[in-house]
Amino acid sequence: MTGSSRRSAVPLITTIQKLFSEDLAKENDFLRQENKILRSKLGKRVPLTDADRRLLVRYGLPIKQRLAEVISIVSPETLLAWHRRMKQQKWTFDNSPKRPGRPAKTKDTEELALRMAEENAWGYVRIAGELKKLGHTISPSWVRDLLKKHGLPPCPQRMGLSWKQFIQSHLDVTWAADFFTEEVWTCCGLVTYYALFFIHLQTRRVYFAGCTPQPESRWMQQQARNFSLVVAEAVCPCAYLIHDRDGAFWPLDAVLNSAGVKSIKTPPHAPMCNAYAERFVRECRETLDQIILLGGHHFQHVLKRIEQHHNRQRPHQGLDNVIPLEFAYPAEPAAVDDVHCESSFGGLLNHYYADQQAALAACLVTVRNGSNASGVSMRVRKSIAILLTIRG
Fold it and tell me: Are residues 75 and 137 in the same domain?
């Protein structure tokens, strides 16, 4: 190519480069504006992965001088910090051997270990031994780490019975006592009455001692003597009496302690430590909140009716829907016509019962006809025999 031809081609190449530069500049301006719009929609911070950071470092380092004008996701200092971190990771080697370690214990093993620690005052070695009997092989140190993780102290600090363990092991000889108040209309206006009751924890039997506007010392001593007679007649021994730290219980404790009853006081501001009594108070509230009490005698009458309904007519879920005192359950399902309802206080307390004579008559017909006689229980047969004797 001659010199004249070279000189004629230089302006053409320069013009083409200028046109391409103008197009690239316009494309960059458009992409920057588009990037600003997208950044405004995403928020202040964009989550990035390690692959995203490596990509930005790769294309950002060649334009490090003009990086502040172009970058918008992060600051230039952040991008350079990523670059320095990548260089450090390149020359960092982990020389430790890759060992698999011990396999993690199953969830059942952890639950059994925690259960044994909560229910018993055992040490780490004893718990590991008990779990070995069940086929769970663990070390005492694993038990220690597990209990520490769940906030359970070592064995010496877990010594002694909890409230739940104490109550469960002494249900048959433990009673609970408590007060609750109710506003009663009298000639002097609204007067606050205090109702005292006792509840046997095993059978849930309730005894209302009485109600008074002033639970003074003599009244409490008399109620303690009355309670001793009730316990003796009901054949429900009382070795422990649980109540709160109210000063009104001091005269009652003095009388009962002389009879060999030990008083167990609940911690301050801990009503759930006397949960059986608190649950019965809520049961009483369901009825008392619907009644306007007129005088102390009316209040006493309502309390005795609640006591009767609770002891002899109301099934209790904590006792598998059994009534505390003896109840004559029918041997056969009662017919609709044989079911009666005993209502109190306008339907606030309802008791449904079956006509026992009608049920016995149905069983009598069944036995006489000889159908399904083998399915009749011995108790029903005795009742039928009595009925046949009466009828001659």
Answer: no
* pTM of model > 0.90: no
Instruction: State how far the Cα of 171 lies from the Cα of 354, in Å rounded to an integer.
Output: 32
Q: How far apart are alpha carbons 298 and 330 in whole angstroms?
A: 34
What SS3 class is residue 321? Answer: coil
Confidence band, pLDDT 50/70/90 cuts, at residue 250: very high
Asked if the structure places residue 312 within a domain, the reply is: yes
**CA-to-CA distance for 180 and 197, rounded, in angstroms?**
9
Residue 49 near residue 61 (C-beta atoms within 8 A)? no
pLDDT tens profile 352-363: 888 765 555 555
β-strand partners of 192: 183
* 324 domain residue, yes or no: no
Shared-domain flag, residues 115 and 23: no
Q: Are 121 and 99 in contact (CB under 8 A)?
A: no
Which residues, 6+ apart, have CB-to-CB distance to 210 below 8 Å? 195, 196, 219, 223, 300
Q: Are 153 and 296 within one domain?
A: no
